[in-house]
Amino acid sequence: MNVLWVFAHPDQGSLSGVLRDEGLAALASAGHRTRVSDLYAMKWKATLDRDDLGDASGDTLSAASRRAYADGTLGADIRAEHDKIDWADAVVLQFPLWWYGMPAILKGWFDRVFVKGYAYGVTDPQRPGRTLRYGQGRLAGKRALVLVTAGSREPALGPRGINGQLDLVLFPLLHGTLWYAGMSVLPPVAVYGADRVGPHEHAAAAALVRRRVAGLDRDAPLPYRTQNGGDYDDDLVLRPELAPGASGLDVHYAGGFTGADE
User: Fold this and answer.
1) What's the angle, vertex CA 172, arms to CA 52 and CA 92, rounded to 5?
2) Strand (E) positions, the chain?
3) Contact between 60 and 121 (Cβ < 8 Å)
4) CB 3.0–4.6 Å: which of 9, 52, 129, 155 could bond 16 by disulfide?
5) pLDDT tens digits for 221-256?
6) CA-wise closest residue to 109 among 45, 19, 173
7) Which domains occur in the chain, in start order?
């Protein structure tokens, strides 16, 4: 299996850096091939602008990005990331949980790399009016695993914790970005209390990362509903007979999924 590891932490000597190295070593020992996008080390440019899009003046930004992608005139650093994703069977996204989300540099990676025509705005060639997203699309068949370090203790990111349940806190990334683009999304993995890790917790965190990357090719993905599988009406609203009377983000899980596997 080919695995792209996208790493977004400014400190190579941090716990995150150690866990990245543990994960990569585990993948290599299992015979998998890996490539790494270390965004801070790459000094990744985090803002999408017209400089990325070649000669596409006069278009809206989304139209310009589609044209630049189709013409092969996107910035060289963006095209290099496309090559890595195309090569990969699975992508690991590792970052510290800052203000309930990704560091800006990783958000900028998605803004610049997941452009129209590549990760969204993809239509069904057999049915040109039908958009392929939420379980379908250009990145379908690839797997994604999100690995975060969090200062919070585990119960506070649980089903009744004040910080919100982890998979729902990460819903915009897991469902709204990765699943939207067609990737099969594995339950996220978190290392809690990352700023208070002693030797015992360090060893446990390393073992957890090794275990989860070992299952990258076989663990069951989150059971999100597909857009085009019949669960949603023409307004993309969940049909009333499914999860009747319920609302909220978790209605978009099929089969009553109740929490992330940590």
Assistant:
1) 70
2) 2-7, 33-38, 90-96, 123-124, 127-131, 143-149, 184-185, 189-191
3) no
4) 9
5) 999 999 989 999 989 999 998 988 888 888 899 975
6) 45
7) 2-221 (3.40.50.360)
